[in-house]
Amino acid sequence: MSLRIVxxxxxxxxxxxxxxxADDLTVDRDDVDGLLSELDEYAVEQALQIAEEADDAxxxxxxxxxxxxxxxxxxALSMGADKAVHVEDDDLHGTDVMGxxxxxxxxxxxxxxxxVICGMASTDGTMGVLPAILAERxxxxxxxxxxxxxxxxxxxxxxxxxxxxxxxxxxALPAVVSVTDQSGEAxxxxxxxxxxxxxxxxxxxxxxxxxxxxxxxxxxxxWTKVDSAAERPARTAGTIVKDEGEGGKQLAEFLAxxxxx
Length: 261
Ligand SMILES: Cc1cc2nc3c(=O)[nH]c(=O)nc-3n(C[C@H](O)[C@H](O)[C@H](O)COP(=O)(O)OP(=O)(O)OC[C@H]3O[C@@H](n4cnc5c(N)ncnc54)[C@H](O)[C@@H]3O)c2cc1C
What we know:
globular; three-stranded antiparallel sheet; seven-stranded parallel sheet; about 25% strand; binds flavin-adenine dinucleotide; single chain
């Protein structure tokens, strides 16, 4: 039977752009260009490598995001994924990690899966917790932060590198894994891949299709709330110490005044 892999990919605001909060203190996503979270490219790459090793596999890329999030799906499809699912709904505005994980879990169940692959963290929220919450919601094992991953005989295996030790981990499928930026360079889409991606199916889903009520997501369903936000102050010129014999003393005084020494 075909190995069904679902890769969760997030469309994130370009970190090199000028990002702002909207009036309701959510990220103003209309104000800045977005792209496929770089860390999720590693997840797509690992899915492609697992599929290449398997006799028969199908890769679905899944995103919860606004209209423009299709760009992230197209990029993953042009890398080689087979099909895509896009959950988009006006009621998702303001959804936090609890709501996002609920929507992803329902969409994954609807799609059907043996293995879910996530990135280690998104490059905007950077919580790194979504894969664990997702596994809990799906009631399957989680093997997170892998720098090496493979699938053999219905088992997913991998290596997690810590500061002092490397662990070999495994779990029976179905399971959720997340992979790190050490798992292997993500491939660039080829011209053929980019052309092929235009014809690959992208299924559009709304909350109704997933039996999710509007009050379970959005700002209303969020477990977290941003009370206030302030712009980071502009950079100042800093203090320049000119050494005219007293430089060392002045430097020490400055460091002491800042409580560095
Ligand atoms: C339109 C929109 C509005 C939002 N508004 C808010 C808001 O106002 N406040 C708020 O707290 N959160 C909001 N979110 C949710 C937030 O952006 C995150 O998706 C969520 O909180 C997960 O946190 P994280 O990105 O830090 O995930 P992490 O735990 O860092 O992500 C780990 C991995 O989970 C997967 N993943 C994460 N998010 C998605 C996704 N959306 N689709 C597919 N895969 C994903 C990726 O594989 C990623 O590498 C919004 C999301 C969307 C799409």
